[in-house]
Every structure is written in C-alpha cells, then in structure tokens.
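Ticket #4471: complex job returned nothing on first submit. Input attached below:
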Amino acid sequence: MPIAHNATSIRPDLLRELGPAHAASIVIGVVIGSGIFLVPSEMMQAAGSARLVYLAWIIGGIFSFFGAVTYAQLGAMKPQAGGEYVYIRDAYGPLAGFLCGWTWTVVVKPSSLAAISTGVIRILANFPPLAFLNVHAISLGRFFLTWGQLVAIAFVFLISAVNYVGIRRAGNFQLAFTVLKLVLIVAIAAIAFTAPGDWRHFAQNYPGATGGLTGFFAALAAALWAYDGWSDLNMVAEEIRDPERNIPLALIGGLLVISALYMLVNAAVQYALAPITVASSPSPMSDAVRSSFLGSGAAALVSVAMVIALTASLNGVAMSGARMTFALSRDGNFFKVLSNIHPRFHTPHVAIAMQGVLSVIFLLIGGNFRQLFTLALFAEWLSYVTASSALFVFHSKGYALNRQFHIWRYPLAPALFIVASGALLYYTFISNLRYSALGTLVILAGIPVYFAFALRRTV
Amino acid sequence: MSSRKPILGGFPFLASGDYLSTRAGGTFPNPLLSNTLEIWPSCLSLALPLLLEKANALE
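Support reply: We reran it on our side without changes. The output follows.
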C-alpha cells in the first residue's frame, strides 16, 4: 500500500518557479566545471590508450545514467527540498537522514564552494594582468590574506546574493551561464579540430601508463568523478514546476548532453595531440588549441571557458546546498532559524547566508581545504549509495514507481549504480585512508548534535 | 587470510589529492595555464613565419 507523504513537511512558501530548461541547466551547470579540460591527461596516464579512455567514458556515463534514472524515480516520488536527506530520512529514519544532511551542511557544500571559488582565482591568476591575485593583500605576522582569497570571498558572497534574491533569478543566472559554457565548449572543441592533428592518434598508446585493469579502473573512477554533481537537482525539487515530469527529463536529458560534451572534448584533444603529449600536458585542451589557426591566444579562451564553467557550477552548488540545510532545519533537526523563508524573495535566505559564511571560513583557513574536499568527496559518494538504496526500501513499502520514465527495469538501474558508486567509495576510502576516516568521524559527530536538537524538541 | 591491499591495487591519482577530474579541477595543483592575451589569429599574422630550417642552422 503506498504511504502518504507527510503533508505538514511540505511548506508552500518555496515557489515552484524553475522550468525544465532551468532544471537541465542545474544538472549540466553543476557537473561540468574545469575538470572537462584537464581530465584527458589524467585518464590517459591511467588507461594508456584513446580506446580505453573512451571505454571508461562510456562505462562511466552508463553508470551515471543508472544513477540519474534512480534519482529521477526518487525525485518524482518525493519532490521536496533536501534530496538525499529526504530519501535517507524516509527510508532509514530521522537520525540517518540527519547525519547525511549534517555532513552536507557543515562540510560537503561549504568546502565545494571554497574549492570552486579558489579554482576560479587560480585560473584567473594565470592571466598576466591578474597575477597580483597571488600577492599578499593583508599581512599580520604569520597571518596573511592574498588578493585572490579576498576576490574568492567576494565571489562566494556575490553568488550567495544571487541565490538570496529569488530562485527564479538564480535559475536564470544558472541557465545563462550554462548556455554560455556549452557554446564555449563546442567552440573550443571545433577550434581544436582545426589544429594539424592526426586521426591515427586514436589508435596509438601511451607506454608510461599505469595500464592493466588497475589503470582502466582508475580511468573509470576519474570518469565517474567527472560525471558527479547531477544529483544536486533533487535538492531543489520543491522549486521545480511539474517535478514528476521535469526532474526525470532534466536528469536524463542533462546527462546525455554532458556525455556528448565529454566525448567531444576528448575527441578534439586526442585528434590534436598524440597520447604521450596528452598524458604529459598539465592542460591538454590549452595545448590542443594552441596549435590551431587561432594560435596561442586560443589557450586564453580555454581559461575563460573554465572560469565560466566554474561560475555555473558554483551557482548550482550554492543553490542546492542551502536547500539541504533548509530541509534539515524545517524538520526541527537543526537551528530553526535556518528554515526561515524570505517573505519577499521566497528563498531559504538564512540557510543561504550561513552556507556562504561557512565557505568564507574555509577560504580563510587557506590551503587546508584540500583535506576538506577529500572528506567531502567521501561523504558525497556515501550519500549516493545510501540514497539510491532507499529506492529499494520505498519499493518494498509499496511506493509506486514512475512508469513514464521507467526506462530500465527495476531493480537493474539502482543496483548497478550502487555497485559502481560503492566501488568508488571503497577506493576513495582506501586511497585517502586518513581523511576518509576523518570524514567518517565528522559524520558520526552529528550523532550528539542530533540528540541535542531532539532533546530541545521534547523540552 | 586477509590483506590490507585493495583488490585491484592502489589508485595513485586518488591518493594524490589533485582531483583534476572533479568540477573543482585545477584548484589544488597549479593549473599551469599560459594565457597569451593576443586576440589576433596567428594565421593572419603579418610577421614572417619562422623557418625552422633557418632557425636550427648552425652558424
């Protein structure tokens, strides 16, 4: 028997103002960051040939597609703010849901925002007139701040402000930057194809690669990381019009566009550069376009595209992260003030502001958020595995599946996605034992916080 | 019998913490982008092309 949703947990104050184009732009905008231009070298170093790199992209894309189908079902089933938090809460109880929401609120989203905004600054600092971004702006003994850190902080505040003033405005910003990003990526790939390349590169090997099954799985892990981020859409499900239709459409359609772009960029790089050059290049796409008809100036276009791509990613991450905090607080599991909705803008404005402040704190800490990012990645994939497994729980409880988008027969899609993300989780944990263990501790640190808020509710 | 080694060996790039494949690629290692701010396409350059044969010729 289907279980009715808890009607009291749905607040009408968030407005359903995002259409299918906005939703797709969140999927594409968040997933494609700067990695698209850098990852070909990492994958070539691991797999060792263009054919294996392509196989990794195809298999990574298929696994991500299974994930998108799973999340399409979950999103259509429970179109509420909070995504994974909601699914884990309703499948495994409030404590499990809280631990997910807590980790995303205090670590995953703020550290992602800090990492992405720092990425923007590092790319901008490579332009000679902006080299001052690496210079100290404030120096107080051992404590110092660079101009880059100050600009990154301003950037986080700007994006938070865009999200503060309305979901429609933030959605339009997301759509505009995603379209710009797509145009630039296609243009750059087209420019790379004008380089004096060779189709025979696709049949050549890179002899220094890790190779073997380990190398291939490393390339596959890189591809899965590159596809990561589409699940952010489910966190804003409460503000999407006709979610039963638009969430599946945006997830599946968005992922198909992303896969096509990744293949296109890879093809352009591999056409322009020999495998050995791809593997040794710190920025393969910049090197690919440098030998095109536009010359070395085209490399600057790649950097501009990276900044645009990161801006769309930053906006999507900020938009989705605040909804997770909001959902957690609306249930009384965190500070109630974080569930406040702005009377005019209809946004979770306090949650947006708090997320921005946490990101700024991470930016002020400086280079230490590499560890935070490791921790965030581990926590992210743990959430994907747990949230996807919730679909089995809902099915066993009698929830109806969305047949309209039931492309792959249940339970194939969620099972395969859980296997792939479980394997990636395992290798992330093993390869970064220290910080992944620290990540587990951060997650578990939420237990006393949960009971502290539970106690407050009963008093 | 158990082993602490992962089944398929270690993934060095996962341990390196460079995260080039993530959307935050380029944040942790130095991206080393050499951006030349010239907007004039090199194919339209009025300068004479550098002849490699001449450039490499011994004095």
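Residues 1-8 of chain A have pLDDT under 50 and may be disordered. Closing as resolved unless it happens again.
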